[in-house]
Amino acid sequence: MRGLRDKHVLITGGAGGIGAVTAERFLEEGSRVVVLDCDAAGIRRIERELPTLSGTIIADVSDAEAVERAFEELDDLLQGLDILINNAGISIRQPFMDITPEQWRRVIEVNLNGMFYVAQQAARRMLAGGGGVILNMGSTNGLMGYPFYADYNASKAGVIELTRSMALELAPTVRVNVVCPGFILTPMQETEYPPQMRRAFERKVPLDRLGRPDEVAALFAFLASDEAGFITGHCHVIDGGEIVGGLASQRQSD
Fold first, then answer.
1. N or C: which end of the chain has fewer CB within 10 A?
2. Do residues 142 and 164 make contact, with C-beta atoms less than 8 angstroms apart?
3. Quick check: 14 and 36 in contact, CB under 8 A?
4. What is the CA 22 to chain-centroid distance, rounded?
């Protein structure tokens, strides 16, 4: 991708899953990459797996003060920020009537509040530096109804609207987009999903398979690159056609 070499990149939630694969992709593009995650063991693992990282930071994005301190550390590591992959997030599968106030607050605090705290700190630096790209992690769950994830769905719908507002207010200096994956098979899901459950998910996707983390990483790379220089404020779905016919909301037995 044009324009990614030597760019300064921060990836939150980058110690595993899509975040780790995205970090690897940007390193391949010649970018300088720092990974932020609250998982200390995951940070140690990614340091071993990707020794060319420019640094790692341990922080909980749901804590505004911790995020502020993390960006002060980032300033020392990168001396500027060009690209933010705002990826950190959690989900808790739970029927609506069983969601506790604590669970609701935790999902919203990480997925929406954390997205805001990190994006605001990044935007301050990008505006001062004359430009940048912010890519927020959304989900197809933020675009259509889906059972057992009311808190997650609400948080991702909020991320989509946050992205649109940011894109309007930060233009023309900073481009802001949101990536909305559908069913992506991460290493964690490979171990958690039995074959019959995985096949039920695949049947919801017209391309008849689950997505791969490297495909999401490729979309991040494109949207961050000069190739996407006229793209801002939009939701970019990568789901194999999952939501085209409202397929995601169908019960697994359908």
1. C
2. no
3. yes
4. 10
CA separation for the pair 248, 242 (Å, rounded): 6
Cα–Cα distances (Å) from 149 to 18, 111, 153, 203, in that order, read: 20, 13, 6, 20
Selected catalytic residue, list 117, 146, 152, 193? 152
- Amino acid identity for residue 233 in this structure: G
Which domains are seen in the chain, by residue range? Answer: 8-249 (3.40.50.720)
Contact in structure between 166 and 156 (CB atoms under 8 Å): no
Q: Is 152 a catalytic residue?
A: yes
3-state secondary structure of 199: helix
Quote the CA–CA distance of 118 and 19 in Å, as a whole number.
15
Radius of gyration for the chain, computed over Cα atoms and rounded to the nearest angstrom: 17
With H, G, I as helix, E, B as strand and everything else as coil, classify residue 78. helix
According to the model, what pLDDT value does residue 200 have?
87
Low-confidence ranges of the chain (pLDDT < 70): 188, 192, 248-254
Taking the CA of residue 158 as centre, how many other CA atoms within 13 Å lie in the half-sphere pointing to its CB? 17
The Cα 227–Cα 216 span in angstroms is 16
Residues facing 184 on adjacent strands: 211
70/252 Cα distance (integer angstroms): 41
CA–CA distance, 189 with 201 (Å, rounded to integer): 12
Helix (H), strand (E) counts: the chain: 9, 7
